[in-house]
Amino acid sequence: MKSDDRELQSAKKFDSSRADEYETQSRIALAGYEACHELAACMLAATLGPGGNRRILIVGVGGTAQEITAVSRIEPTWRFVGIDPSEPMLARAAQRLEEQGLSDRTELHLGTLDGLSTDATFDAAMMLGVLHHLPGDDAKNAILNDIANRIAPGAPLILACNRYVYAKKPHLLAAWGERWRMHGATSEDVKVKLGKILQGADPPASEDEVFSLLANAGFERPEGFFSSLFWGAWIAWRTAL
């Protein structure tokens, strides 16, 4: 199975029903959802500098398009290209961008990065909440390489995903369940919600593995800036040619 086929296969679980609940559920599943996206925007602005006509690639934009919302709060002249293989999730993103008046600064594409020309060189890329949904290292390496081939040498990548094998961190998994219960879920609800989250998920086994994947794709100097239970967020730079 090709890497883009794996991405499309992973996207199938983000059907209409899951897309409908994503806005609320993502904020419960990730304690600090808003903070992570705000800090990601701040890290990007601190790296690229304020102002200008920057073009930012957003991989996995579907659902809330929160990356674009957060960056736009401090950089009103930057433009975005967002891509997502899930049609329902991309539709939710389009709706959110329209509501916030950001549609004219954003191009949305349904599909995978294979369908996006390598001639379009971006000033930076963001990929939050995608990597742990891709099965196996081959698919993870492929998407990171696809990003590297579409951003300028020396450009930053903001990456965020779950890391650790869930079953090997039972205390974190239990705390994750309590997070849902804190927001009104019953014990049975928690089992269902965790089951949905774990469905088909294959996170990197450690932060070191995240760094290894980045290095294999030509990214250097990874630096963490946010952590929440299984979740981590980093900035890294495409190796300069």
UniProtKB/TrEMBL annotation:
Domain of life: Bacteria
GO MF entries: methyltransferase activity
Stretches assigned to the Methyltransferase type domain: 60-156
Family annotation (InterPro entries): Methyltransf_12, SAM-dependent_MTases_sf
Organism: Phyllobacterium pellucidum
Protein name: Class I SAM-dependent methyltransferase
Keyword Methyltransferase: yes
Sorted UniProt keywords: Methyltransferase, Transferase
GO BP of this protein: methylation
Pfam families per UniProt: Methyltransf_12 (PF08242)
Higher taxonomy: Bacteria, Pseudomonadati, Pseudomonadota, Alphaproteobacteria, Hyphomicrobiales
Record CDD domains: AdoMet_MTases
